[in-house]
Specification:
The structure is a single chain. The chain is an all-alpha fold. The longest helix is centred in the N-terminal third of the chain and has 34 residues. Helix content is 69%, strand content 0%.
Amino acid sequence: MRIPHLPHRGIAPAVDPSPDRHRQGLITTLQTLIALIAFAANSVLCRMALGNGAIDAASFTSVRLLSGAVTLLVILLLSGGRSSAWSTGGWLSPFLLAAYAIAFSFAYLTLSTGTGALILFGSVQMTMILWALRSGERPSRFEWAGLLLAFAGMAYLVSPGFEAPSFGGAFLMAVAGVSWGFYTVRGRGRSNPLAATTGNFILAVPFALATSALTFRSVELSTSGLVLGILSGSLASGCGYVVWYAALRHLTSTRAAVVQLSVPMIAAMGGVLFVSEAVSFRLVLSSVLILGGVGLAIGGRRPKGTNPEELLPKSTEI
């Protein structure tokens, strides 16, 4: 008896998710790098504008937020989003964004580029780590050691001494860091970060304009100051924040806080190159401690599992 030929029904090979995961990891790394450079550029552009007296701090903030809002709205419309999508986020995030931007600008009246960036992102880290602990995230022992080392560097940077930064400037930059930290954790749960960031910038403009009105007697404007403010708002702020939010979807609160501490080194290099600032021993040693802590914390991160969903952060929206 002849047995009829049956078509071979093999078992389909399992699809290896590793290439997709690796690709996503590369994309996240690139997004993070671009965002960190943009954040550093904000410090450099602000110091270039305020250090030369090209514009006053309040006007720089208003120009920065207004140009950022216009740029983001254009990007939102070009990407197919509705112009009304930005208006659903409430006022808390815009207030935090404005508080960050205002304190940031006034702090840089007395701080150098690298010192200001160190204080800013150290304060951001502390805020985000405390929020991560409140949300149930638990860093590893190596991450704790890295964070303590970074905090030691921060303490040394602001300790009294000949090369100590201005107390008023340091306090204002710490306020900026806390505001930015809470602003960041609120943004991690957004399903449409572009629309959310656009709305935050638009609604933050009135706070900046009110500050300008209160300080109108000290207004200083020049073409170069306006250009630097526009560059800070359009490129370093608006576009930088959109890229950062995209990266945040694949970063935990701890890692997001830690990687931002690489910004001061980039900012300090920019200050040397573009603002002709000197690099003090205090700044160098603080940077070594802080960035050493960054490397220890990142290198000590334990893998969370093989499920890709486990690599996505839990929402920390407040």
